Amino acid sequence: MTCLLHISDPHFGTEQNSVPDALLRLARQQAPDHVLLSGDITQRARPGQFAAAKAFTDQLPAPVLTVPGNHDIPLILNVVARLFYPYRNYQAAFGKELEPVLDTEHLLVISVNSTKPSRHKNGEVSAEQIARVAKRLRQANPGQLRVVMQHHPVSAIEASDQANLLIGRAQAVPEWIDAGMDLLLAGHIHLPYIRPLSGQETQRTGWTAQAGTAVSQRVRGSIPNSVNLIRHECHEGRHQCSVERWDYAEQEDEFQLFSETDLALYRSR
């Protein structure tokens, strides 16, 4: 079985005092194979905040794959940094690759940089990015769980979040589903949920899983700090996949299992 820890929006610089330690304990207990961090790693893209984030991720018990979020780019007030080297501090901490790919026997994770320095907070995906991801998905083997990770969401459950959805999603999502995507991971709105996604040409179905804010004070309403654990196995061509939502319980000072959702995965190849 493959186990993935999906965390998002830690916003280092605003982290709650005991929550990072509680998340580290959860990670050590669950022993994921990989950690997927879907952006807004810092609050203001400052070197010290990236240093704190890197010190935290270095303590996690598994390799970490990251993409930037809109908060990982300097503020628009810093015009020179935002326009000419927007990812300098991010890359100093987490490496030069903005769209890393993880390809193992049982797992394919394709990262998409949905941030655009020309936009304040909205995310966008280009035709070139859509085509690159679809091509890589078509190269996956039948036994792999096929994941796309980006910062911005593609499906909302609250009307107020419609404005936060990825620009270009109407083109990207059906093409990626038709190409074989099983699961799209994102964050940005600090609201955890799972929604089905549909293809167009194949009538195939996939899923998107949103994560809440992992360790930040910027919780949304009554939703506490929250992360996802994804478990997948393939036996004789049969796939089983589940997404567990783990919420931070302040009184117990630990992350606790809140819900578990089984995902049906469809295979034509």
From TrEMBL:
Q: Which Pfam families match?
A: Metallophos
Q: Where does the chain cross the membrane? A: none
Tagged with keyword Ubl conjugation: no
On whether NADP is a keyword of this UniProt record, the answer is: no
The UniProt entry, under InterPro entries, shows: Calcineurin-like_PHP, CNP_phosphodiesterase-III, Metallo-depent_PP-like
Q: Which residues form the Calcineurin-like phosphoesterase domain?
A: 5-191
Q: Which UniProt keywords apply?
A: Hydrolase, Iron, Metal-binding
Q: Family per UniProt?
A: Belongs to the cyclic nucleotide phosphodiesterase class-III family.
What is this protein called in UniProt?
Metallophosphoesterase
Gene source species: Pseudomonas neustonica
